[in-house]
Design a protein that fits this description.
about 240 residues, alpha/beta, Glutaconate Coenzyme A-transferase, three-stranded antiparallel beta sheet, 6 helices, 11 strands, globular, CoA_trans_fam_I, 3-oxoacid_CoA-transf_A, EC 2.8.3.5, succinyl-CoA:3-oxo-acid CoA-transferase activity
């Protein structure tokens, strides 16, 4: 069966349900599944647990699901610069599981690799380690962290062939490759779809075996979250 679907709606058909866990790729606003998030919003599915580096920015990304109160819990690394997230968390509407960024990435990678737990020194002696086993290795304490897996991963890539082999571009690579391996179903939006066998095998970042459904992205805004400019120096 073809992995290519004609729209975000058709690609997500039959996959969404209340209370599910969704991994959403991206770092800041780079590599966000811009076309798939609005369709999840339109579906009205609620009480979602969302695993993502961050919760989007005002008016964009996962912010769209926060606005409609569809997210019940966020498992994230960075929650700054999102006033709506702050309001919902402080009011008790939204549950938050905060992770050091490297720990979040490794928990997702472990989920894809079938590793249920691992030890890391990051977070020992802080609130991150509260309620978690701590063991000593070679004289240093390590906290035990567990894998992360999801019902659905929504990710964004630059290019895909019809078999689902993916290539990411620059910073948009971020959490997307790991998330593609750690969910029961992976839906990817791409900017370009080419025929199977036309991609350089050495350039493929995510093998097609991890990809279930593909759409050509309908939104490619690629916003810059915090543009920084400087005056051009005189010649």
């Amino acid at each position: 069966m073809s992995k290519i679907f004609g729209s975000p709606e058709s690609a997500l058909a039959g996959l969404l349900f209340d209370g599910m866990t969704i991994m959403s790729g991206g770092f800041g606003l780079s590599g966000n599944p811009e076309s798939l998030i609005p369709e999840i919003r339109r579906s009205g599915v609620k009480n979602l647990t969302v695993i993502s580096n961050n919760a989007g920015a005002d008016g964009f990304g996962l912010w769209m699901l926060l606005e409609t109160r569809q997210v019940g819990k966020m498992i994230a690394s960075y929650v700054g610069d999102n006033k709506l997230f702050e309001q919902q968390y402080l009011s008790g509407e939204l549950e938050l599981e905060l992770n050091p960024q490297g720990t979040l990435a490794e928990r997702i990678r472990a989920g894809g690799a079938g590793i249920p737990a691992f030890f890391t020194p990051t977070g020992v002696g802080t609130v991150v380690a509260e309620g978690k086993p701590v063991e000593e290795f070679e004289g240093r304490p390590y906290v035990r962290e567990t894998w992360l897996r999801a019902d659905l991963a929504i990710i964004k890539a630059w290019k895909s062939d019809t078999a689902g082999n993916l290539v990411y571009r620059r910073a948009a690579r971020n959490f997307n490759p790991n998330m593609a391996t750690a969910a029961k179903v992976t839906v990817v939006e791409v900017e370009e779809i080419v025929e199977a066998g036309s991609l350089d095998p050495e350039a493929i970042h995510t093998p097609g075996i991890y990809v279930d459904r593909i759409i050509k992205s309908t939104i490619n805004e690629k916003r810059v979250e915090k543009p920084t400019t400087r005056k051009r120096e005189a010649a």
